[in-house]
Specification:
Rossmann fold; 2 domains; seven-stranded mixed sheet
C-alpha cells in the first residue's frame, strides 16, 4: 500500500533527536507531553498526547519511550497499536504501512457498491483496512484480501480479514473468477524518482515495498486493471487509489480493458485520489 506525500508529523516536523529530552527528570503529564509533541512538529499534539498516555497505561518508562519515539517521527499507530479507519478500529503492527485518512473515501465508496450478500476482493490489503470496513458494513458478504508481506497478512487476520498470501491476484481461489462485485487495491504508486521527495519521516519509517510504484508510479496500477476482468462479474466495480497525473492514463487503460462509467474521485482540494470503473457486459 502506498503512502500519500504528507508528513506523519506534519510539514513542521523538525527531524531532530528529541529522545535526550525525555528522561527521568522530564515531567510527563498531559501538558508536558503535549508541549514535547508540539515542539517536534506534531499537527495534533494534544490528541496524540492523550493516545500515548492511554497506550502507556500508567507506566512512566513506557510513556517516556514512546513519546521519544514519536518525536523522532515514528508513526503514532505503531506506538499505540491501533487506529480508527472509517469508524472501524484496526490493529496496526510496527513496521507496517499505516492506513491513511484519505483512503477512507475509497473504502466507503467500495462498501456502498457491495451488495449485502456480494463478493469483494481487496488486493495489497496491508493491515486489512479496506477489507475490514467492507466486512463490518456487509457482514453477510464474502470479503477476501491478498497480501504479499506475511507480517502484514498476519496483522490483517488480527483485523478479522480472510487473507490469501501472494502478489496481487495470484493467490485468489479460482472459484472466485467472474463472481466479484467489487475489487479494490491500494498498490504502491509513488514514482521511483519521487521517493526522495517524500517527507523525511515517511522515508525513514515506511516500508519501501509499500511505496515504490515504478518509473511513473503506474506499474502495478496497470497490472491490476489488466487482471481485474478475470475476477469481476459483468457490472462489477474496480476501485484504485492513485495520485498526481495518473488518473488520465489509468482511465484510458481501464476503458481499453472493458471498463465503463469511469469516475475519478478527488479530495477536498480537487486533487485526484482514486478512480472507479464498472466492467461492461462482454468485456
Amino acid at each position: 500500500m502506498r503512502v500519500a506525500a504528507v508528513d506523519l508529523l506534519g510539514s513542521g516536523w523538525k527531524g531532530h533527536d528529541y529522545s535526550s529530552r525525555v528522561d527521568q527528570a522530564t515531567p510527563l503529564d498531559r501538558e508536558a507531553v503535549t508541549a514535547l509533541l508540539a515542539e517536534a512538529g506534531c499537527i495534533a499534539p494534544a490528541e496524540e498526547a492523550d493516545e500515548l498516555i492511554g497506550a502507556a497505561v500508567g507506566d512512566r518508562d513506557v510513556l517516556a519511550a514512546i513519546v521519544a519515539r514519536r518525536t523522532e517521527g515514528e508513526p503514532l499507530a505503531w506506538l499505540t497499536g491501533s487506529i480508527t479507519f472509517a469508524d472501524v478500529t484496526l490493529v496496526v503492527e510496527p513496521g507496517l504501512y499505516v492506513p491513511r485518512v484519505q483512503t477512507e473515501a475509497l473504502a466507503r465508496r467500495a462498501t456502498s457498491l457491495l451488495p449485502s450478500t456480494g463478493v469483494a476482493v481487496d488486493l495489497c490489503t496491508g493491515a486489512g483496512a479496506i477489507a475490514a470496513v467492507m466486512a463490518a458494513a456487509r457482514p453477510r458478504a464474502r470479503v477476501v484480501a491478498t497480501e504479499l508481506d506475511p507480517i502484514a497478512a498476519r496483522c490483517a487476520r488480527r483485523n478479522h480479514v480472510e487473507v490469501f498470501e501472494g502478489s496481487l491476484d495470484e493467490p485468489l481461489p479460482a472459484g472466485l473468477e467472474g463472481t466479484v462485485d467489487v475489487m479494490t487495491a491500494v498498490v504502491p504508486y509513488v514514482p521511483t524518482d519521487a521517493l526522495r521527495l517524500l517527507p523525511r519521516d515517511v522515508q525513514a519509517f515506511e516500508p519501501r515495498l509499500a511505496l515504490d510504484g515504478g518509473t511513473d508510479g503506474t506499474d502495478l496500477l496497470a497490472e491490476v486493471v489488466q487482471r481485474a476482468p478475470r475476477w469481476l462479474r459483468a457490472g462489477g466495480w474496480l476501485l484504485l487509489e492513485l495520485g498526481g497525473d495518473q488518473a488520465e492514463p489509468v482511465g484510458r487503460l481501464s476503458e481499453k480493458h472493458g471498463f465503463t462509467d469511469i469516475d475519478v474521485m478527488v479530495d477536498e482540494d480537487g486533487d485526484p485520489r482514486a478512480i472507479a470503473g464498472r466492467l461492461g457486459v462482454g468485456a
